[in-house]
Design goal:
The protein is an alpha+beta fold. It has one domain. Strand 5 and strand 6 form a beta hairpin. The longest helix has 19 residues.
Length: 150
């Protein structure tokens, strides 16, 4: 009888752990607004950060800050965002002392959150000796799910 309870407990533990691993993960559709590098030697004043933008004022201020040295927004696919239906996710790396660095992001969702996975990609081979700051900006549909960065 004791062996029966041990077997029952093991089956219960295996069942619980396998249910946790069966969380459905789906890819989130996004629209690329811009990716590249700022070339203002850090004079834009943007530190390494992740942003979730849900209002026009924050978006307009970010564009102005990015344009402080060079008119970076000329390369954006769009700047007029309808924040009643969309959010903007902006990721900025630290200022780098050479070129060749860039960012990549992947957006996935589970039933309880959206995960933004940020990958910093270092240069390989010869690089320019110019200060750069990689960034990546996308637009997604509005959601009630919390957005977390990894």
């Amino acid at each position: 009888m004791k062996n029966f309870y041990i077997l029952l407990a093991l089956l219960f533990l295996i069942s619980c752990s396998s249910q946790k691993n069966n969380t459905k993960v789906t890819t989130i559709e996004s629209t690329l607004i811009a990716k590249g590098n700022l070339h203002g030697n850090g004079e834009e004043g943007i530190r390494k950060k992740h942003m979730i933008i849900s209002d026009v004022t924050t978006w307009t201020n970010l564009i102005a800050q990015m344009n402080a040295v060079n008119t970076t927004s000329n390369t954006f696919t769009e700047t007029d965002i309808d924040f009643s239906t969309h959010r903007v996710i902006a990721v900025f790396d630290e200022v780098r002392t050479s070129g060749g660095y860039h960012l990549d992001i992947q957006l996935t969702a589970t039933t309880n959150r959206i995960v933004v996975t940020v990958t910093n990609i270092a240069p390989s081979g010869n690089v320019s000796m110019i200060m750069t700051q990689p960034f990546y900006i996308v637009k997604i549909d509005n959601t009630q799910l919390p957005i977390v960065f990894e």
